[in-house]
Design goal:
- The structure is a single chain.
- This protein is α/β, with parallel strands linked by helices.
- It has 2 domains: 3-174, 3-Layer(aba) Sandwich (Carbamate kinase), CATH 3.40.1160.10; 257-401, VC0802-like (2-Layer Sandwich).
- The protein has 12 helices and 20 strands.
- The protein has helices spanning 16-31, 46-57, 63-87, 97-100, 119-126, 153-163, 197-205, 213-222, 277-287, 316-330, 357-367, 391-401, and strands spanning 3-8, 35-40, 92-95, 102-104, 113-116, 130-134, 137-139, 145-147, 168-173, 194-196, 226-230, 239-242, 256-260, 263-272, 292-297, 304-312, 334-338, 341-347, 374-378, 381-387.
- It has an 8-stranded mixed β-sheet with strand order 3-6-2-1-9-11-12-10, sandwiched between helices. Strands 13-18-20-19 form a 4-stranded antiparallel β-sheet, sandwiched between helices.
- Strand 19 (374-378) and strand 20 (381-387) form a beta hairpin.
- It is globular, with a radius of gyration of 23 Å.
- The two termini are 38 Å apart.
- The structure holds adenosine-5'-diphosphate, aspartic acid (ASP) and magnesium ion.
- The site of aspartic acid has 13 residues, from helix 6.
């Protein structure tokens, strides 16, 4: 007998029919003698619908109330799935985050899980129930409802698996695993049998939304056996996230290509080229609680230099305002920005032992006439910022150049 945590995303529970299908799959695992905890998302489109509803009433919604609102989506699905399980003759009990007691900090809309009480779930499992838990939500120490950020049900799934020391955490979604890149953008993308935890972490943080980044962090920290699978196929082993590089079956140098349109670029032109300037620019940005991602500073000429960095697109306007406020103090000639950019990244642990990845990447983009605006690298990834309108083209040509398509 194993203890398995299964998480089903929005599309997988998008209609009553699909909820019944999920119940069938859960029943199969129950029949094999396993204990099952199921985490579900809101029905597809529901969270977006609620966000839009809030904005009609309060254009810049209060975050505490937003979490009260958004958590209702998942509450609907846990009840419906529990009913569907009962219809199949199984014992089932639903839990909201607060009922489990998934304790989080109080950072509404992006709360972090601090602790999970397993007592109630354990008792139900031992009594033969399927435990059905609402994803994406928790409760802070004062009893306020919190949510974990978009895509947060993945994190609920992995965190429950860690807390219950489950044998496996299965993330069921609308694709049958982790692909070399988003199969919606590149139809030739290939499913990976395995991907290392490190690579998955990079891919998630660079924009591959198949797993929320915090779920991957959790899996790494607590060594959760994590697998991504299709909720629509009956067979298939999906993608296993592995901890050892040797476990990688495919020894490709590049494992995947990630991309996102979530960033915007800000350039501070003509600042004095002297010690402390980076601090004078980025200090106020940090004080305003704005995260900075990529940074470049030009080599100075004539005693001045240019400084460029990226922030999340949602914080672009705020960052520009902050800098305009200190422009005179910094002595900058001009502050400009661009929010029509995209970041495209190639990821792979094989990069550690292979040279020439960067040159292949840059040549491929040059051949398509795509201008690179910024570059950043780590041991296992190279990212470039380009004009947003070339993003999909860049992903497609890089996917081909690195030989990632279906054999
Ligand atoms: P769920 O609602 O099940 O959580 P998501 O929409 O959050 O599903 O995540 C699944 C989607 O992630 C897929 O439909 C796919 O378009 C997208 N995706 C992005 N990058 C990848 C990738 N490398 N591999 C697989 N899917 C990816
Ligand atoms: N329903 C939430 C969202 O749409 C959480 C999730 O699905 O993981 O972001
Ligand atoms: Mg998701």
């Amino acid at each position: 007998m194993a203890l398995i945590v299964q998480k089903y995303g929005g599309t997988s529970v998008g209609t009553p029919e699909r909820i019944k299908n999920v119940a069938q799959r859960v029943a199969k695992f129950k029949m094999l003698g396993h204990q099952v905890v199921v985490v579900v998302s809101a029905m597809s489109g529901e969270t977006n619908r609620l966000v839009a509803l809030a904005k009609e009433v309060q254009p810049n919604p209060d975050l505490r109330e937003m979490d009260v609102l958004l958590s209702t989506g998942e509450q609907v699905t846990i009840a419906l799935l529990s009913m569907a399980l009962m219809e199949l003759g199984l014992k089932a009990r639903s839990y909201t985050g607060a009922q489990v007691k998934i304790v989080t900090d109080s950072a509404f809309s992006k709360a972090r899980i601090l602790d999970i009480e397993e007592r109630n779930m354990r008792a139900d499992l031992d009594a033969g129930h399927v435990v059905v838990v609402a994803g994406f939500q928790g409760v802070d120490e004062k009893g306020n409802i919190t949510t974990l950020g978009r895509g947060g049900s993945d994190t609920t799934g992995v965190a429950l698996a860690a807390a219950l020391k489950a044998d496996e955490c299965q993330i069921y979604t609308d694709v049958d695993g982790v692909y070399t890149t988003d199969p919606r953008v590149v139809p030739e993308a290939r499913r990976l049998k395995t991907v290392t935890f490190e690579e998955m972490l990079e891919m998630a943080s660079l924009g591959s939304k198949v797993l929320q980044i915090r779920s991957v962090e959790f899996a790494g920290k607590y060594k959760v056996k994590l697998r991504v699978l299709s909720s629509f196929d009956d067979e298939g082993e999906g993608t296993l996230i592995t901890f050892e590089e040797e476990d990688r079956m495919e020894q490709a140098i590049i494992s995947g290509i990630a991309f996102n349109r979530d960033e915007a670029k800000i350039t501070v032109l003509g600042v004095p080229d002297r010690p402390g300037i980076a601090y004078q620019i980025l200090g106020p940005v940090g004080d305003a609680n704005i995260d900075v991602d990529m940074i470049i500073q030009n080599v100075g000429a004539d005693g001045t230099t240019d400084f460029t960095f990226t922030v999340h697109r949602n914080e672009y306007k705020k960052a520009l305002e902050v800098l305009k406020g200190v422009q005179a103090h910094i002595g900058a000639r001009e502050i400009t920005g661009d929010d029509r950019i995209a970041k495209v990244s190639v990821v792979g642990v094989g990069m550690r032992s292979h040279a020439g990845i960067a040159s292949t990447m840059f040549r491929t983009l040059a051949e398509e006439g795509i201008n690179i605006q910024m570059i950043s690298t780590s041991e296992i990834k190279i990212s470039v910022v380009i004009n947003e309108k070339y993003m999909e083209l860049a992903v497609r040509v890089l996917h081909k150049a690195f030989g990632l398509e279906e054999a």
